[in-house]
Amino acid sequence: MKPLVSGSGYANSVSPKFDKAMLLPKTAKSWGVAEDALGDIWDLQGQVSTEYGSSIHTALDIWHKYAPTGKKIQEKKGMDMNYVLPKNEHIKNIVLSFEEQFGSDALSEVLISDVGNLMAGRIDRLEILDSDGKVCRIGDYKTNNDLDDKKMLKYQHQMSFYAHILINKGYTVQGLDIFHYDGTKWVKTTLDILELSR
After folding, report:
1. pTM, entire model
2. What is the pLDDT of residues 71-90, one digit of tens each?
């Protein structure tokens, strides 16, 4: 059996790659620092960024799925805030800010596949726009400090991959939405669906 291609795997295959092996020795020499130290710094900073983003994704997933349950617990226990909100004040405020701007009337962490075309993926946010459940928008959360054109195009490829899975299954995908938390606020960018390159 051939393995299924993921959205991120597809996006990586059609996007420029960060060539650490080539850049690290040149950068370390230019900056006058040890190559192994700089490599560790890059790896650990990447880990911090990934874990931070994962925490926000998870907090939004819990909120989308269980806010009504959390509200019942809040009322039962006489709490000041919804039970499912993060205890971490920073991440709690990020979730509440998202709710205030965009709401939570959407499906979260939706697993999709088109096995016949060897495609699979997981959508951060799937907004259903009709009563039959066949018209939708695909949303993705990003927490990078900044989204340059290269990153945005890579994410557009990834979300377009998800869109084609749904289109192949008879859905109408109206468009793609990047929800970017830039460190102070959420910014929504709407993107078109790209044709697949494979």
Report:
1. 0.89
2. 999 999 999 999 999 999 99
- Domain at 105-198, CATH from 3.40.50.150, 3.30.70.260, 3.90.320.10, 3.10.310.70: 3.90.320.10
Q: How far apart (Å, rounded) are the C-alpha atoms in residues 2 and 117?
A: 10
Query: pLDDT by residue (tens digit) across 104-163?
Result: 999 999 999 999 999 999 999 999 999 988 999 999 999 987 788 899 999 999 999 999
Pairing verdict, β 135-142 and 119-128: antiparallel
Q: Where are the domains of the chain?
A: 105-198
Torsions phi, psi for 136 (to 5 deg): -150, 170
DSSP string, 132-175: TS-EEEEEEEE--S---HHHHHHHHHHHHHHHHHHHHTT-EEEE
